[in-house]
Write a structure and sequence with these properties.
48% of the residues lie in helices and 11% in strands. The chain has 342 residues and is an alpha/beta fold. It has a single domain (9-338), classed as Alpha-Beta Barrel (TIM Barrel), CATH 3.20.20. The strands form two sheets. A seven-stranded parallel β-sheet has the order 1-4-5-6-7-8-9. The chain has a two-stranded antiparallel sheet with strand order 2-3. Helix 12 links the parallel strand 5 (201-205) and strand 6 (238-241). The longest helix is centred in the middle third of the chain and has 24 residues, at 173-196. The structure holds coproporphyrinogen III.
């Protein structure tokens, strides 16, 4: 299928095709480290911002204008479709809170697979609004992976020990599989709505799958990542991100993802060796590197670029940009990556 972004640096790199230079975008590139983001967000709750496509489009464009990155990522959050499933979500100063966690059959029975066009249309609408203003810049869509979304729904928020989901995993695995089934179906239709709206690629965030023991990863994370990738098909390239991916690279590849997004704890060289040269990778500068100084950040970025090689690499951080780094350090990073030639 032909898409207007097939020729972009991002899509070519995601497909392992030749590129003039390595493209860069930054996870969480639109966010609190930008005064302009804080200004647009003031007086609005974070979720209301996600549900306002005009404002979400404005926020999505900030890093294109200010950093000159090679890709946009639609402004939203992985927890948005969870609310549409019937599990309420709130955001406070301490991060997300889900006041009615899913811990038994009754709670599972009350959930539904949402119709993304009716129940959570905002990300797709934002992507549609961005088609003109972005011009040649491709826009990525995204979703949380089933295991990571289940962890929020069961824990009721971000967790340190993942007590409730692990208890369910060991005591009532069939209940957890039931929830993962429902989330997988939701994520498939949700990502498809973003692809239909014009997303040039998608990223599946399995942020918390790295906390699992290997057998549990293979039972509760991998099959559902696979279900999502099989469900949306191959019309656009698909990235898989796992924080703590170092010991799961082979399994990540088995998910069917087109691009493996690396955190910063694994060396690019080791990852390439394990994955093989043919699969594109994304990453993997340590986010704290943006504390500077800029010259040393650039040196380390160039080291990553060299280890990754000239094709099949999308430069990124190993996790989201931190809220207390300076915009100026992010601008310097983008320039240092875009001026590098192999
Ligand atoms: O990358 C982008 O610019 C697109 C937007 C985006 C956000 N969240 C905006 C956001 C994306 C891709 C996400 C993904 C996301 N959300 C993940 C997976 C990636 C990762 O970081 O591991 C997760 C686990 C979440 C859940 C979430 N959202 C948490 C735990 C928090 C609170 C902690 C925090 O960083 O604030 C959020 C809030 C959130 N998501 C903010 C933004 C810009 C900050 C909200 C604010 O304005 O106060």
């Amino acid at each position: 299928m032909f898409s207007k972004h097939d020729n972009s640096l991002l899509v070519r790199a995601m497909r392992g095709l030749p590129v003039e230079r390595t493209p860069i975008w930054i996870m969480r590139q639109a966010g609190r480290y930008m005064p302009e983001y804080r200004a647009i967000r003031s007086g609005l709750s974070f979720l209301d911002l996600c549900k306002n496509p005009e404002k979400a489009a404005e926020v999505t464009l900030l890093p294109i204008e200010m950093l000159n990155v090679d890709a946009a990522i639609v402004f939203s959050d992985i927890l948005v479709p969870i609310e549409a499933m019937g599990c309420p979500v709130e955001f406070g100063d301490g991060g997300p809170r889900l006041p009615r966690p899913v811990r038994d059959v009754a709670a599972l029975t009350n959930l539904r697979i949402p119709d993304p066009n009716k129940d959570c249309p905002w990300a797709a609408e934002t992507i549609r609004l961005l088609d003109k203003p972005l011009g040649d810049i491709p826009c990525l869509g995204f979703a949380g992976a089933p295991f990571t979304l289940a962890s929020y729904m069961i824990e009721g928020g971000t967790s340190r020990n993942f007590t409730h989901i692990k208890t369910m995993m060991f005591q009532k695995p069939e209940l957890l599989h039931g929830l993962l089934d429902l989330i997988s179906e939701t994520v498939v239709v949700y990502l498809q709505s973003q692809i239909d709206a014009g997303a040039a690629g998608v990223q599946l965030f399995d942020t918390w799958a790295g906390i699992l023991a290997p057998q549990d990863y293979e039972n509760f994370a991998l099959p559902y990542q696979k279900r999502v990738f099989d469900g949306i098909g191959r019309s656009v390239p698909r990235i898989l991100y796992v924080n703590g991916c170092g010991t799961y690279l082979t399994q990540m590849k088995a998910s069917g993802a087109d691009v493996i997004s690396l955190d910063w704890r694994v060396s690019m060289r080791a990852a390439r060796q394990i994955l093989g040269p043919e699969i594109p990778v994304q990453g993997n500068l340590e986010p704290s590197r943006l504390y500077g100084p800029n010259e040393r950040t650039a040196e380390r970025a160039h080291f990553v670029l060299k280890e990754a090689g000239p094709t099949g690499h999308i430069f990124n951080l190993g996790h989201g940009i931190l809220p207390d780094v300076s915009v100026e350090s992010a601008v310097a990073l983008v320039k240092s990556v875009q001026s590098f030639r192999h």
